[in-house]
Amino acid sequence: MRREAQFGGAAFWTLRQLIINYWALPLIAVIAAPVAAIVSLWLGQHGASEFLLARDLAPVASAETAKELASTATGVTAAFLTLYFSITLLVLTLAAGNLGVRLIDRWIDKRLVRISMAGLAFCLVFSLIILAAIDPAADMADVPLFSLLVLIILQMINIAMMGVSLHDLGRTMFVDRSIARIGRDAATPNLPVTAGEAWRGEWAQTIPARRTGYVEGINYAWLAKKLSDHPGRLHFCKAPGAHVLEGEALVLCERDGVDPHYIDKAIAIGDFRSDGQGPVFFIRLLVEIAARALSPGINDSYTARAACDALTHAMAGQLGSWVDRADQPLYADDCRFEIPGQDFAALFAGPLATLRQSAADYPAIAARMIDNFGRLLHHDAMMNRSPELRAFLCTQADALADHALAQTQQHLDRETLESARRNCVGEAA
User: What distance in Å separates the CA atoms of residue 330 and residue 352, rounded to the nearest whole number?
Assistant: First the structure.
């Protein structure tokens, strides 16, 4: 499924911010737990507990034991919740220090972590209410046996979930797993791009940004429906991931009459770059991981190599968005929309320049990336592609080789770089 289809404009972005966090689902669980506890107590009073007693299925032998069981369950759940929350913060802190703080947004988005915290919160509140409802001096007929049985089942589920969740948190520190997932996301086009002729006339209407921030996403499909009767071109000045100032041109219209309210609803602007921006964010995230891995404080060349390979995977997946310089990128589902900044060159030119600056001091990484350009040039996906696309990739490989050769003085490294350049640029030419 395309990410563009999942993005619902400014309202969707606001809702996503309210949902994708560590407190929303646990808050819902805390609210739902008293309702579930009251329902279980009511069911126990209306035959469920009698059913258990009649068939000798009572989970406890006395009211005092029931009180101890509920008290123990409450303490265990509270300890689990504290432990899991502490380990989560510790893992995220260590992983962010090694890989980059922008990965936190992806980890918070993981459903398993949020479901685990919500389950523990639900069980804690549920057990507290059941504990309060038990009278240790009451007869067995008045003990909420059904609720205790539900509590035992919840504890079993939470214990199993703790094992799974702690394993998942431990795997979070395995950098190659995160890199592979980011590479797959970056290789998935977020919207269909086609090439066409740009509008050469004057723009009749300028719609400015209502606030300063980063463009989080644009719901082109929704906007196309709302403007189905509008006859003119729309030029989107800012692509997802771009920074915009309040009052700066956001959309230019060939014809007057576009309601700015539609633009405000279709384009979400946030305070920072985030995972919701799609490939433009993922591509830069891969470069950030590679650059951080090559920093003196971390010096992890194999992580940088994995990030370079994932970046090559992303380029292979985005080849279909290439647009020659003489053409204008257009939204393929509605060619009235000009979308500069969302074609192949716009997605990769900046990040590849940043990667070149970081990799130039590391001949092994530079040679690996040059080899990757060569592999991409000879890949089946490059058949019948634009000569300008081939020239773009050759230029990137050549620039990386020149920069790395200027930095290294070791003759073996220079030979490796020259060989990689010949294999990539020479054969492609």
Answer: 23
